[in-house]
Amino acid sequence: MASSLEGTHQLFYGSFIYSKSLDQLEYLHDAAVAVSSAGKIVAVERECGGKDKALEKISSRLGWGSDATTGFSKEVYETGEGQFFFPGFIDTHLHASQYPNVGIFGKSTLLDWLNTYTFPLEASLSDPAKARKVYSRVIRKTLSHGTTCAAYYATIDVPSTNLLADLCLAAGQRALVGRVCMDQLAPSYYVDESPEASLSATRESIAHIRQINPEGDIIRPVITPRFAPACSAPLLTKLGQLAAEMPGLPIQTHISENKGEIELVKELFPPESTGAKDDSYAAVYDAFGLLTDKTILAHAIHLTESEADLIQQRKAKVSHCPCSNSAITSGAARVRWLLERGIVVGLGTDMSGGYSPSVLEAARLAALVSRHVAMGGDETAKLSVEEVLYLATRGGAEVVGLEDKVGSFEEGMEWDAQLVGLGVLGEDGQVEGQEEEDGNVDVFGWESWEEKVAKWVYNGDDRNTRAVWVKGRLVHERK
Ligand SMILES: Nc1nc2[nH]cnc2c(=O)[nH]1
Ligand SMILES: [Zn+2]
Fold first, then answer.
1. Which atom of ligand 1 is found nearest the CA of 328?
2. Do 109 and 239 have their domain in common?
3. What is the ipTM of this complex?
């Protein structure tokens, strides 16, 4: 029986690994995943008994033809030795505009880092040619590290923010794209002219993004107050009203990253001026209607118990950014503490506070930072390989509101995936079939799958990311 999807559906066969729960990975071998022309996982078959049988099973179950004339026109992707499919990574917080500065932070801390390195670079991206160069590169780079979905900050400039959205759509990377709102405590060369101007520029970007991708399946706009200190009360009021007017829109901002920043918030927003329930940072966002179940809060390092309660009640989400938090010495976020309080957590690279474009690196650093928290006295703080991979995929999906679509390989979800390949050594101790570019992970052959995954987390990089798909579309391939 010929299918209406004939010629466009795809079959993936071999080993699949994904998070079943926070502390458990699912390992499927000799399995097949069928992906429809719309990029949806329409069948998962386990224990197939080989690739040919897998094809037969899928064909008869879905009515898809099993040869080139009647069905699968595309190659059947099959994992080789030491390879497995893994869900695409979700970077829940990064500044596309800061990518040229990765690694450039000296000994700065947040507030001086913003003034010294960050604002001058962001302001310079109002040059369209420069913005195109930077944004094209950051999209290619993050895709090559397996990031299938990214929550991006652009700059205050509307045309280049819109360009970032155009480029993400063209490259096929899922993205939340936010024009940065900031109308105070910023240099005169890089600041919104007024709350009204900030709001109307934000509306312009939202309209553009909705126009280029009306279904919002790949690109979505996000309301982006930079952080409370850079926004006047009238601007926060307007952004809260905008969030209420467009309840589907996500919101992203920073919270409780640096102790000086927290003091500044207390000075700028005394509760009597905002009607907030207390003088905490979280209460400020809440007072302006910006703490909702669509809010992504980056950092959340120095929260108090009552702030964690409030965040949990509002169902706001946290983006944990261990690379940035260590690089610009902001602190060690207590991820276990957040999870225990029922707060959803994902990972963010926070480039260029963070120096690495890789969510795998963020996962590794989340594991390491959790060990520092443990050494500080909380024995339970340590995060396992399984847990950091959950944060990088399913946790991240929930943070960006896509938990029903991406983050694992279940029927009904979409095929956002990466093919991971580790270097399997032959008898002579050389990587089989590859002279060069064999990567940093050596598999000797006696490791269990759990051990192979641990070796990937602690030593892997983009050389192990062999191919990447978003919604069924191949968006990166390592030749
Ligand atoms: N890490 C980080 N924190 C911020 N707080 C306000 N702006 C920024 C930024 O660009 N990066
Ligand atoms: Zn940030």
1. 1
2. yes
3. 0.99
